[in-house]
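stage 2 :: seqdesign
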Protein backbone atom coordinates (compact mmCIF):
# COMPACT_ATOMS: atom_id res chain seq x y z
CA UNK A 1 0.00 0.00 0.00
CA UNK A 2 1.46 3.30 -0.98
CA UNK A 3 0.26 6.79 -0.18
CA UNK A 4 1.16 9.67 -2.36
CA UNK A 5 0.82 13.27 -1.32
CA UNK A 6 1.07 15.91 -3.94
CA UNK A 7 2.25 19.47 -3.25
CA UNK A 8 -1.24 20.91 -3.53
CA UNK A 9 -2.54 18.66 -0.75
CA UNK A 10 0.55 19.38 1.41
CA UNK A 11 0.08 23.18 0.98
CA UNK A 12 -3.60 22.89 1.84
CA UNK A 13 -2.80 20.89 5.01
CA UNK A 14 -0.17 23.48 6.07
CA UNK A 15 -2.67 26.31 5.54
CA UNK A 16 -5.29 24.52 7.67
CA UNK A 17 -2.75 23.89 10.43
CA UNK A 18 -1.70 27.56 10.32
CA UNK A 19 -5.35 28.68 10.54
CA UNK A 20 -5.98 26.41 13.55
CA UNK A 21 -2.85 27.78 15.29
CA UNK A 22 -3.98 31.34 14.49
CA UNK A 23 -7.43 30.68 15.96
CA UNK A 24 -5.91 29.24 19.14
CA UNK A 25 -3.58 32.25 19.39
CA UNK A 26 -6.49 34.67 18.92
CA UNK A 27 -8.58 32.90 21.60
CA UNK A 28 -5.68 33.17 24.08
CA UNK A 29 -5.18 36.81 23.12
CA UNK A 30 -8.86 37.61 23.68
CA UNK A 31 -8.77 35.90 27.11
CA UNK A 32 -5.80 38.03 28.15
CA UNK A 33 -7.49 41.10 26.72
CA UNK A 34 -10.62 40.46 28.80
CA UNK A 35 -8.52 40.17 31.99
CA UNK A 36 -6.62 43.33 31.06
CA UNK A 37 -9.80 45.29 30.36
CA UNK A 38 -11.23 44.21 33.73
CA UNK A 39 -8.12 45.52 35.48
CA UNK A 40 -8.23 48.74 33.45
CA UNK A 41 -11.87 49.30 34.42
CA UNK A 42 -10.99 48.82 38.10
CA UNK A 43 -8.08 51.23 37.75
CA UNK A 44 -10.24 53.82 36.01
CA UNK A 45 -12.81 53.59 38.80
CA UNK A 46 -10.05 54.30 41.34
CA UNK A 47 -8.77 57.18 39.23
CA UNK A 48 -12.28 58.62 39.04
CA UNK A 49 -12.55 58.62 42.83
CA UNK A 50 -9.18 60.35 43.20
CA UNK A 51 -10.09 62.83 40.46
CA UNK A 52 -13.34 63.71 42.24
CA UNK A 53 -11.48 64.29 45.50
CA UNK A 54 -8.88 66.47 43.79
CA UNK A 55 -11.58 68.40 41.93
CA UNK A 56 -13.46 69.13 45.15
CA UNK A 57 -10.26 70.18 46.91
CA UNK A 58 -9.32 72.41 43.99
CA UNK A 59 -12.67 74.17 44.19
CA UNK A 60 -12.15 74.74 47.91
CA UNK A 61 -8.64 76.09 47.35
CA UNK A 62 -9.91 78.31 44.54
CA UNK A 63 -12.41 79.85 46.95
CA UNK A 64 -9.66 80.37 49.52
CA UNK A 65 -7.43 82.00 46.92
CA UNK A 66 -10.25 84.34 45.92
CA UNK A 67 -10.70 85.35 49.56
CA UNK A 68 -6.97 85.87 50.10
CA UNK A 69 -6.71 87.85 46.86
CA UNK A 70 -9.54 90.12 47.96
CA UNK A 71 -7.96 90.60 51.37
CA UNK A 72 -4.57 91.41 49.85
CA UNK A 73 -6.19 93.89 47.46
CA UNK A 74 -7.93 95.59 50.35
CA UNK A 75 -4.68 95.63 52.31
CA UNK A 76 -2.76 97.14 49.39
CA UNK A 77 -5.44 99.79 48.96
CA UNK A 78 -5.28 100.58 52.67
CA UNK A 79 -1.48 100.85 52.55
CA UNK A 80 -1.66 103.13 49.51
CA UNK A 81 -4.28 105.21 51.28
CA UNK A 82 -2.11 105.38 54.40
CA UNK A 83 0.83 106.49 52.29
CA UNK A 84 -1.35 109.20 50.84
CA UNK A 85 -2.54 110.15 54.30
CA UNK A 86 1.02 110.12 55.64
CA UNK A 87 2.23 112.15 52.65
CA UNK A 88 -0.62 114.64 53.10
CA UNK A 89 0.02 114.87 56.83
CA UNK A 90 3.71 115.37 56.18
CA UNK A 91 2.95 118.14 53.69
CA UNK A 92 0.61 119.83 56.16
CA UNK A 93 3.24 119.63 58.92
CA UNK A 94 5.90 121.08 56.59
CA UNK A 95 3.53 123.87 55.63
CA UNK A 96 2.80 124.64 59.27
CA UNK A 97 6.53 124.68 60.04
CA UNK A 98 7.17 126.99 57.10
CA UNK A 99 4.41 129.34 58.25
CA UNK A 100 5.78 129.24 61.80
CA UNK A 101 9.31 130.05 60.55
CA UNK A 102 7.96 132.87 58.43
CA UNK A 103 6.09 134.31 61.43
CA UNK A 104 9.20 133.97 63.60
CA UNK A 105 11.30 135.80 60.98
CA UNK A 106 8.77 138.63 60.86
CA UNK A 107 8.77 138.86 64.64
CA UNK A 108 12.56 139.11 64.66
CA UNK A 109 12.53 142.10 62.26
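stage 2 :: out
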Amino acid sequence: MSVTIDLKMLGFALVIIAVVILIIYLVLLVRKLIVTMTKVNTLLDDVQVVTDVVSDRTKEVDGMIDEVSGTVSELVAAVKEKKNVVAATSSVIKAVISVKKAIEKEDEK
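stage 3 :: structure notes
- DSSP finds one helix and no strands in the chain.
- The first helix runs from residue 7 to 108.
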